[in-house]
């Protein structure tokens, strides 16, 4: 019992990241072997921003760990964390190829931390993943480390996440059966064999490969040695002639080496002569420059006199500019004073114009008063309009009351319309949700049967081409009333019919199939409903008579379908006569088959088919497990849909009635508004007549007041003119003062201009003298220039000769293979050069003679001699190598015999142990299986492999496990049992298997689960991780197991708020009757 170790091993998943309360620090384990953990077992897994997790910690147990949770909750994320956290490659997982893809979407980085048990102190491995550059950083026990150091630490603990026998992720389950026998042997050796077994195997393969290589090498070398000796005998005479030719060529080479030295010596002597001429011209050039120096001194003296004069002229120019600026300022001030005088005169003109305008307005106002007084006298004779105004007011009041009633009714109607529209939208949303459920069903159809989906789209666009009813594929129109019952319908109706179209008329079906199957080449099915409806056909027996056997319904009552579809199913598959039972039915199935005498019945999880022999009248029954529903789990309530459509039509009619009444009200309101406007216009006209007399009296009074005001506002023009003249006189006085300053500045400017003219005359005289001196200097410079040109030419010739000498020296050095920088003829060439001519003509003559003699030896090449010499050396080397290879081959054969004995005997024992456990597991399942070591040739060690052979039915032979011969469920069972056979032999610290039970039938799944529990919870077993999205009911569990439940959702509690005891108390209270 290891309950103390299980209490805290609960995994939590967070939707909002929360920090962990546990500080992961390196520590020495106190519960290692005592707690059941072996060296390298996983104590803790911490994930942060990893795949589906914000933050989560997992504490597995030392034995079997069941990780259970619905699809998509994050079970496989834990598997990915184990692989990547232990330096595994992304290719092992079969998901994304980039490690950055494993960071939670929307985050920049994520991390995985894994704590492994180690007797000398636990090992904590931390991996932080960066999304931006797809890189990872590693830490060992909170200290930065390289990935290679992590891989070495993991390897020392015998962890192999790349070995399918130890680590089998969900995406790689199918690849286990695809492994060749050789690959399976290598994986098994690495997983359960001694550490040296796989090394011995690799060593054997290497020895055998090298043995084959040595055998081939010895044979090839012996043949090549004999052929080389024969070829050298044939080439011996050609080699002797080649050496005679080589002597002539050597003399030619020596002549060619001496020739550049003779050329160099000739060029060197010429260079020495040019250098002497250059030095003489240099001395002449110097004497000419000394004779020209007095003229240059006079030119510099004139320039020194010119410089201060030019400086004074610049200062005069600045002073003149300043005086001009002051004159401009005074001129601008005079212009401002003139403008001021104009403004004063304009003000006087405005006052005169204003007074004239006042006199005109006084005369005009008096004329208007006389006209208004005459009009007032004419108004005294008109009648009273008050009774007419009162009658109009009474009618207006009646119209307002009528309009208020209509407005109140309009508001009520508008409120009713808003309520009706709100109800319509609510119904529309509900209907849309039902249509979305239909869209889910259509997506399933498209993903599984794309041709049928294309035909469905064509049918919806061309329904007008058919006369009778045409129903879409049955899986779309069948609505299961309870999704738990969908498995019965899918097990009873074949898949080909579930995706078939149902037609009412034969000609419609033929037209449809001609289009989609013949023209569009789509693979679709179609059926025709019976001419006489069978949808209401009664069952052969009343349901009341079957309830005592546990039957609760006939198949027809579990779903809804259109009339023609239900008729076809009743006619073809007797859904009206197939009862559905419960576990009670299963418990008394023999009695049910004997007494009920129905051809087909269903229990809770199985389908029974009953047949009666035509010869012996014996009853034969067969049963099969119900497969999970795939297409009918999404249900749509047809009655609710029809009811919603009727309610929507009623709401539309109500809105239409309200709109009609509101239109009538608006028409009445328009008429009332028109009459109201007419009455108001009449009232306005009468009111204007009544108030016109009073208005005239008021206008006369107003005009008289205005006249008195204008007469009082008389302007005194004489006083204003006197004031204006005084202002103009004051401004003129200021203008006089400004003009005096202006004249003073003009005089100063004239004086400065005169002084500048005198300085300009002095500057012109000095410039003329300087020009004359420069002309004399240029005349004396012509001879100097000719001397400079001659000197430059000699210098160029000298440089060219120097470059030529260097080139010739470099060429001579290169030909003689001299050290760079060395200028003397090498000592070894002195004697040879002494025997050769010393002039270029003699050297050329001897060169032609030697070349002619060398050309007489034709048909020879260096390659022949090189090949001869090379072959002589090869013959010697091959004789030595052949002896060495022969000795090495003898040594390798001895090593192979010793390595084979060390490897093969322990391997056979290991395979026998695996076979014994594997066979026991299969016998416990009433099946057969064996494991053996297979090889077609005992000496081909790279062809050795483990062969797995199984049989699941008693009437078949053992067949090798392949990806094609067995079904998916049989491959899963075989893979699982092979892995369990390795469990007790395993030297690896843990094993991971992800969702391998998918595809197993319930019987095999239950058997395999029992084997897993027995094997993984044994005494000498290592840690085991078993991931599954679902478990069968009533399985047998062991106390050593650890159950890790993975939950996911937007309302998950963070780890620091999770209370396991409170959760268990609530669960117990909920189940107490």
Automatic annotation (TrEMBL):
Disordered: annotated span: 1-34
Subcellular location(s) of the protein: Chromosome, Telomere; Nucleus
Coiled-coil stretches: 264-333, 389-444, 641-723, 861-902
Alphabetically ordered keywords of this record: ATP-binding, Chromosome, Coiled coil, Nucleotide-binding, Nucleus, Telomere
Function: Core component of the SMC5-SMC6 complex, a complex involved in repair of DNA double-strand breaks by homologous recombination. The complex may promote sister chromatid homologous recombination by recruiting the SMC1-SMC3 cohesin complex to double-strand breaks. The complex is required for telomere maintenance via recombination and mediates sumoylation of shelterin complex (telosome) components. Required for sister chromatid cohesion during prometaphase and mitotic progression; the function seems to be independent of SMC6.
Domain Rad50/SbcC-type AAA: 44-316
Gene3D superfamilies with a match to the protein in the record: 1.10.287.1490, P-loop containing nucleotide triphosphate hydrolases
GO CC annotations, alphabetized: chromosome, telomeric region; nucleus; Smc5-Smc6 complex
UniProt name for this protein: Structural maintenance of chromosomes protein 5
Xref: Pfam families: AAA_23
Ranges of compositional bias, category Polar residues: 13-32
Domain of life where this protein originates: Eukaryota
Molecular function terms from GO: ATP binding; ATP hydrolysis activity; single-stranded DNA binding
Complexes and interactors: Forms a heterodimer with smc6. Component of the SMC5-SMC6 complex which consists at least of smc5, smc6, nsmce2, nsmce1 and nsmce4a.
Major localization class: nucleus
Compositionally skewed regions (Basic residues) per UniProt: 1-10
Stored SUPFAM superfamilies: P-loop containing nucleoside triphosphate hydrolases
InterPro entries assigned to the protein according to its UniProt record, in alphabetical order: P-loop_NTPase (IPR027417), Rad50/SbcC_AAA (IPR038729)
Annotated family: Belongs to the SMC family. SMC5 subfamily.
GO biological process, one term: double-strand break repair via homologous recombination
